[in-house]
Amino acid sequence: MLRITCPHCGARDELEFSYRGDATVTRPGPDADAGAFHDYLYLRRNPRGWQVEWWQHNGGCRAFLKVLRHTVTHEVRAVAAATETLEVPGA
Question: Which domain of life is it from (predicted)?
């Protein structure tokens, strides 16, 4: 089980959180074509290694967080508020 340290509530079990997806994907602008929106919605990377992800603390403060998690070992290296920036190591 993952332990995620919420910046507002402290360390909690992953059962209190909901995974919301890759935090590095950016939404196409309003003038983008349908192909760009298709790619945004359906084509995602499946990296092996460190990834910045969106998580929501549903069982606590309900805040959206960015979590730096290793996709193989599930190690959580850093947690930040949604407005903060997290960098992937070695990227």
Answer: Bacteria
Place of tokens 């290694």: 49
What CATH number is associated with residue 72? Answer: 3.30.2270.10
Reported confidence tier of residue 91, pLDDT bands at 50, 70, 90? low
B/e letters for 5-25, b = 16+ CB within 10 Å, e = fewer, are: ebeeeeebebebbeeeeebee
10 Å Cβ neighbour count for 69? 20
Domain membership of residue 66 as a residue range: 3-25+38-81
Query: The pTM is what?
Result: 0.87
**pLDDT on residue 9:** 96
DSSP designation for 46: -
